[in-house]
Amino acid sequence: MKKITIQTYANIALIKYWGKRDKKLFLPTKSSLSISLPYLKTSTTISESNTDKIVGINTGIQNVKKFLNLFRKIYQIKKNFKIETTNNFPTAAGLASSASGFAAIAKGLNKFCNLNLSNKELSILARYGSGSATRSIQQGFVLWNKGDYNDGSDSYAFQIFDQNFWPEFCIIIVIINSDQKNISSRQAMQITVNTCSFYKNWIHKSEKRIPKMLQAIKTKDFTTVGKLAELDCLQMHKCMKNSFPAINYWQKQTLQIIDFVKNLRKQKIHCYFTIDAGPNVKIICLKKDRAKIINNLLNICNSSQIMFN
Ligand code: 2P0
């Protein structure tokens, strides 16, 4: 029986996506920019089946089924699929499992059905599963242009610099809680769009950070990359907290790690943080400082909480 396996990687947004202008087509209110994480892997195996069978995804099975129905409609495919997924990291804990998950399904279906889709087409297809998945089709630094068309044909992600462009750049993940979150990103971002009084202001400011971030990555200006990422993250979480009902993904140790990063900066160790829809903190640093940062982290965390490349 024909079976194919695809591997994809999670991504962390340095400039965030948080909110849709079209929920059905997954069109974002703003552009976002991410880096892929080669150590957060999803492996997906696809085969044919009598009925759709989704194995190993403990959240969002209905979302995968919806995605498959849409895929069959768009590409006029008559098959049902068995989709088996494994992640080497906690699912639905703010570590972008839906990003690598749907990117793997999109790439896997493309290969299984011999569709020969381009990266642009794959990015658009993955977007129908989850917004952030649009950025996990490719590795390295990736930009998801929000696009302007109502049909979403110009809302896709492309690689800015590949995974070998800046080997010094690294991200340490501090896992604070790997339980599933109590409100999904999908629901939470909609609440923010509908109720946060300064959401439009964040969109405007965040969109303007994109060209600045691109220039900073291009020139490997680490300080500017770190500052822009931290600011964008803080303003996104401020929008969440200003929503009604208020959304808070942070826990006690999230604040502790934020303070830890700020203290390291006072000691002239250059590092910044970013946080997604979960309590875990991602520390942005350069490889030359990584061991020092991890040694310090071990004073307040267990080694099992720390992931890095
Ligand atoms: C991001 N996040 O840019 C932002 C930052 C979380 C915080 O994309 O509804 O799972 O499937 O499009 O992609 C998480 O949202 O939401 C996310 P859907 P998704 O990475």
Give the ordered list of helices and strands.
Answer: EEEEEHEHHEEEHHHHEEHE
CATH class of the largest domain reads Alpha Beta
Gap from first CA to last CA: 36 Å
| Total domain count | 2
Number of helices: 8
CATH architecture of the largest domain: 2-Layer Sandwich
Shape: globular
- What's the number of extended β-strand segments? 12
In short:
The protein has eight helices and twelve strands. The chain has helices at residues 61-75, 97-112, 119-127, 185-195, 199-218, 222-241, 252-266, 287-297, and strands spanning 3-15, 20-22, 27-28, 32-49, 53-55, 80-87, 141-144, 157-161, 169-174, 271-275, 281-286, 306-307.
Structure description:
Helices cover 38% and strands 24% of the residues. The chain is α+β, with helices and mostly antiparallel strands and 309 residues long. The radius of gyration is 19 Å and the shape is globular. Helix 2 (97-112) packs across helix 3 (119-127) and helix 5 runs antiparallel to helix 6 (222-241). A hairpin with a 4-residue loop joins strand 2 (20-22) and strand 3. The chain has 2 domains: 3-161, Ribosomal Protein S5, domain 2, CATH 3.30.230.10; 170-308, Alpha-Beta Plaits (2-Layer Sandwich). It is built from 8 helices and 12 strands. The longest helix is centred in the C-terminal third of the chain and has 20 residues, at 199-218. The protein has helices at 61-75, 97-112, 119-127, 185-195, 199-218, 222-241, 252-266, 287-297, and strands spanning 3-15, 20-22, 27-28, 32-49, 53-55, 80-87, 141-144, 157-161, 169-174, 271-275, 281-286, 306-307. Strands 1, 4, 5, 6, 7 and 8 form a 6-stranded mixed beta sheet that branches. It binds ligand 2P0. Ligand 2P0 binds at residues 13, 16-18, 26, 32, 96, 98, 130-132, 185-186, 276-277. Ligand 2P0 binds next to helix 4.
